[in-house]
Design a protein that fits this description.
The complex is a heterodimer. By secondary structure, chain A is an all-alpha fold. Chain A has one domain: MetI-like (MetI-like fold, Orthogonal Bundle). Chain A is built from 10 helices and no strands. Chain A is elongated and about 75 Å long. By secondary structure, chain B is α/β, with parallel strands linked by helices. Chain B contains 13 helices and 11 strands. In chain B, the strands form 3 sheets. A 5-stranded mixed β-sheet of chain B has the order 7-6-8-5-9, with helices on both faces. In chain B, helix 6 links the parallel strand 6 and strand 7. The longest helix of chain B is centred in the first third of the chain and has 23 residues. Classes of the chains: A mainly alpha, B alpha/beta. At the A-B interface, helix 3, helix 5, helix 6, helix 8 and helix 9 of A face helix 1, helix 4 and helix 8 of B.
């Protein structure tokens, strides 16, 4: 309790200072607001359901993109990791496409898919493919060679080798890749909404800014931070609970 | 491995449910009208709020778009069926090869609303006339945006080459802070943001430059893709009829327009009450587009110098 109080002391002091500063300075800025009015705006937006609906839209796209992109990245990563000639064949192509910033695809996505979920999911998926692909490929490359020797000694078939040796051995790193991709997914989803897609939390920020309500804009910012934090906690809990020591071994090293 | 399997199944299911709404969308004859958070689309907002669209048999709704320059792409992807681009955005989109047509007028320039926009400079910047802008940094809501193009036109009229002025993009809500910090010497601004800057003495008005422009020139117009306009003649006629009725309300009862705008843009009434609503004119003519082509040509904004403007207006 004492530790918690100590940890909260600095943020609390900063909030009080911000409150006093904004109140006393009589600022006319349309980009800052006192913390108390941000809190009021946050509660009001949560209360009337608009912020929760926006959160649902953003998370649906972030997860949709994460799963689509993650699945594509995982399959390609496994393929490239296991079949070296294919990896060498595709290396240039992958390295040429990978550096394209996902948000640079917004204009093309908007033209071809229009506003809505599929547009945002496509952009998020593009951002997530590469993390999964590269890390899965590296994870397979990093598998202890003796494990593969064992699989050969046991005369396992290719499929058995993949499911009994390769994936379990590479799983901890794949999980880390998934968590990293999940972080990107939220960032990219919100960015797509701010830049073009009229839905979700990013659109909420944009509209709050354009309707000259900095308190609501900052409330959305705070909420996105909380959602991102919550997402990370959930994923790390899921990692521990669902995968147990298998997933933790590599992470702790 | 069960975990992996169930994860893959869940992923596929989630992706599928996320994509399903799109298969269903777009089938109905609903009209989505995309406009930005200004008073320019007041007539369409009033037509929705007052049930004029409904009375004329239209299922039409407003959608708030963040950036005006996103409107052509939104039209082309059929995310919106009618949009409110500025003439500069519309003509550049057409110039770039997008097959868009003007379906109606939205707002036009007018002496009575010319003071709602201005170029505002820091009090210590020494900027008093058009000539003083040479070598200075000026913030505008968008390069090629309505306010910036007409400001450049004002500079030309006053013998200054706009190329000698450094333009940077500054969003409306941050203009006050950016000007105060000295990051720019002046901003091209409008509406409540402008009033806020002047009242807080962050800046002083150098010119209400729209006052020097002729009346009746479109500020925002309503556009659709040519294929949509050709395929929906009855709806288009009903849309134009609705706008005719709504424009009369906007021009005679601005408070009613503000109410409709507040619902659509989410701008609070106390802010909207401080600004003038743009004059609505539901007509769009070849002459109006030609005037814009001329303004844009003077700034080398179009590749095709003489577009067939008559063909750019839906029948």
């Amino acid at each position: 309790m004492n530790r918690a109080a100590k940890a909260l002391a600095v943020p609390a002091l900063l909030l009080v200072a911000a409150e006093i500063a904004t109140r006393l300075s009589g600022t006319t800025s349309l980009a800052v607001a006192p913390p108390s009015s941000v809190a009021v705006a946050l509660l009001a937006a949560l209360g009337d359901g608009t912020m929760l609906a926006a959160t649902r839209d953003t998370l649906a796209c972030a997860f949709g993109g994460l799963f689509v992109g993650g699945a594509i990245g995982l399959v390609l990563g496994l393929l490239f990791g296991l079949v070296r000639p294919l990896d060498r064949l595709m290396e240039l192509t992958v390295e040429a496409i990978r550096p394209i910033p996902s948000v640079a695809l917004i204009p093309i996505g908007m033209l071809s898919l229009g506003f809505g979920y599929s547009f945002e999911i496509a952009i998020v998926a593009f951002a997530c493919v590469w993390t999964m692909l590269i890390m899965t490929r590296a994870a397979i490359g990093g598998i202890e060679p003796r494990l593969l020797e064992v699989s050969r000694a046991l005369r396992l078939s290719t499929l058995q080798r993949i499911f009994k040796i390769v994936i379990p051995a590479a799983l901890p790193r794949i999980i880390v890749a998934f968590r990293l991709a999940a972080g990107f997914a939220l960032v990219v989803a919100v960015t797509v909404e701010i830049a073009a897609n009229p839905q979700g939390m990013g659109y909420g920020i944009l509209i709050a800014q354009q309707s000259l309500s900095p308190q609501l804009m900052l409330a959305y910012l705070l909420w996105i931070g909380l959602v991102g934090y919550g997402l990370n906690v959930l994923l790390s809990l899921a990692q521990q609970r669902l995968l147990g020591r298998a997933a933790m071994g590599e992470v702790r090293q | 491995m069960n975990i992996l399997k169930s994860a893959i199944v869940t992923a596929a299911a989630l992706a599928f449910t996320a994509l399903v709404p799109f298969a269903a969308a777009g089938a109905a004859d609903k009209i989505i009208i995309g406009c930005t958070a200004t008073t320019d689309c007041a007539s369409a907002a009033v037509a929705e709020k007052e049930g004029i669209f409904e009375k004329n048999g239209l299922d039409a709704h407003m959608l708030l778009i963040g950036l005006n320059s996103n409107i052509p792409a939104a039209l082309l992807s059929n995310s919106i069926q009618i949009g409110g681009p500025t003439p500069s955005v519309f003509l550049q989109a057409v110039d770039g090869g997008l097959d868009l047509v003007a379906v109606a007028g939205a707002s036009v320039s007018d002496k009575s609303t010319a003071d709602t926009a201005a170029v505002v400079a820091r009090p210590d910047s020494g900027i008093k006339t058009a000539k003083d802008f040479v070598g200075k940094k000026v913030g505008a809501p968008g390069i090629g945006a309505f306010l910036q193009v007409l400001f450049a036109q004002w500079l030309i009229q006053n013998g200054v080459d706009p190329k000698q002025v450094n333009f940077v993009e500054v969003t409306f809500p941050t203009m006050n802070d950016v000007l105060k910090s000295g990051a720019v010497d002046a901003v091209v601004t409008a509406g409540p943001v402008m009033a806020n800057m002047i009242n807080s003495k962050t800046g002083v008005v150098v010119s209400h430059y729209l006052e020097e422009l002729p009346d009746g020139k479109p500020q925002v117009m309503l556009a659709a893709t040519r294929s949509w306009a050709d395929a929906h003649p009855a709806q288009l006629a009903a849309f134009r009829k609705s706008l005719d009725e709504a424009a009369k309300i906007v021009n005679s009862d601005p408070d009613k327009a503000r109410e409709a705008l507040s619902g659509f843009t989410k701008i609070p009434m106390k802010v909207l009450n401080t600004i003038k609503v743009s004059v609505s004119d539901p007509k769009i003519t070849k002459e109006q587009l030609d005037w814009w082509v001329d303004v844009m040509n003077k700034q080398d904004m179009l590749q095709k110098k003489t577009p067939d403007t008559a063909a750019l207006i839906a029948k």
